[in-house]
Each structure stands twice: as structure tokens, then as C-alpha cells.
Amino acid sequence: xxxxxxxxxxxxxxxxxxxxxxxxxxxxxxxxxxxxxxxxxxxxxxxxxxxxxxxxxxxxxxxxxxxxxxxxxxxxxxxxxxxxxxxxxxxxxxxxxxxxxxxxxxxxxxxxxxxxxxxxxxxxxxxxxxxxxxxxxxxxxxxxxxxxxxxxxxxxxxxxxxxxxxxxxxxxxxxxxxxxxxxxxxxxxxxxxxxxxxxxxxxxxxxxxxxxxxxxxxxxxxxxxxxxxxxxxxxxxxxxxxxxxxxxxxxxxxxxxxxxxxxxxx
Length: 266
Hints:
By secondary structure, the protein is an alpha/beta fold. 32% of the residues lie in helices and 14% in strands.
């Protein structure tokens, strides 16, 4: 039997505690949204699982959203459909109910990855599009220098890409997603060229990794990064990132299609 918090959060993070104000920092980045939209292809009906506050939900398709956290459902803007209170592992839909399904920044928080992926495949006729991170590429981000504990915990939480591909079955394509310098979706790597932003407690709170490290780690991070920004150490080491239009980090789209549909090479 799955365990859920008072808020309803079903994963390893209680969004009733950390999700307040989440949508202020985590807005959909248009260039990432375009990649997701392309992967959804011609699908008209789309299931969004772990939908959160609605980032990346297409506005020109029939979307059904699933989100177990009450705090996140409450932050969904009025123009988006109301989200259903359910979890990935137990989707309340018949087989092959949707043309496509999507899950963004969520699979690492599911209690049972294999069961959730099997459910996505069960209810979807066409592509299943997952936005996640490659745990083997997380250490490309300069945060590894200042808070390796945060990178290590994320590497443990994010499923290997091969495990996601196996869970989806069929034909799977893994697509690197470049992160733009002015990315408006405030996941950690989005600040690769704007380090000052991660001194904001709200920006860190909108990244669940900080929920899994000791307060002393965050305090050390703020002190050390603040000092290095003030004396120029960060810029001497990483300053070129302020002028780098895109960062080749850990962000990936995993697109699974039934074998009968094949895939489009890019």
C-alpha cells in the first residue's frame, strides 16, 4: 500500500511543506516546452502525470492532469484543467485511454518507478515523454564544487536512463536538452551562469535536493559561494558560463513509443 503525506504527496518529498511558492520559481521554459511538444507529435489527448503546478502542459491539446499533492494542485493557474488526485502507480484510467503521456521532473519521486512506468504505458496509445536528468551527468554543474552532498543525493534519487528505458519498453529515444542561460524554470542547473540566484532560499527550496541535505550543508554553501562571488573566485573559475548561451548538463527527454510506431531520428 502506498504511503502519502498529509498533503497527499506520494513521493519522497512533502510538497505541503516545501511546495509553497514553488510556481514563483518554476515556470515553464519555452525552449524546453518546444522539445516536449515536438516529442508529443500529433497526439490530441495527453495525460500529464506528476503534473505539479502545470509547467509544460500544452495548451493546444486535451490534457488530463494527475497530481497527488494538494499544495501543488492549488497552485495550478485557472486556465489549466483541474488536476486529479492520484498517483503514477495507480492511474484511474482504462487501457489505451490517451494518445500520449508526459511526466516532467517527477519520476525520481515516485515510490515505485517500474509500476509507474508500466501504468503510463498501459494507458497510452502513443509516445510517453519523460523529462528527467541523467544521474551520471549531474557533476558537470559547478554546484558539485560547493555542495557535493546535494549532487550526490540527486544522483541517488534520479533513476538511470537505462532503467527508465527498460520500464517503458518498445522503442526508446534519449534526447539531450540544452539548458538556456536565461532559463525561467528554476531547477538547479538553470542557474549555471547566474550563481547569485541560488543564494535565494526560495530558489533552493524549489529544488527538492536541498530537502535531503543537512542544514549545515546549505549554510556552508551560502557562506562559501557568497564569499567567492564577492572576491571574484567564482568568476575566475567559472565566469565563462555567464556568457555561455546553453549548458550541456544532465537534462534529458526520454521518449518511449510502442514498437509498432517506431521512432523518428533527430
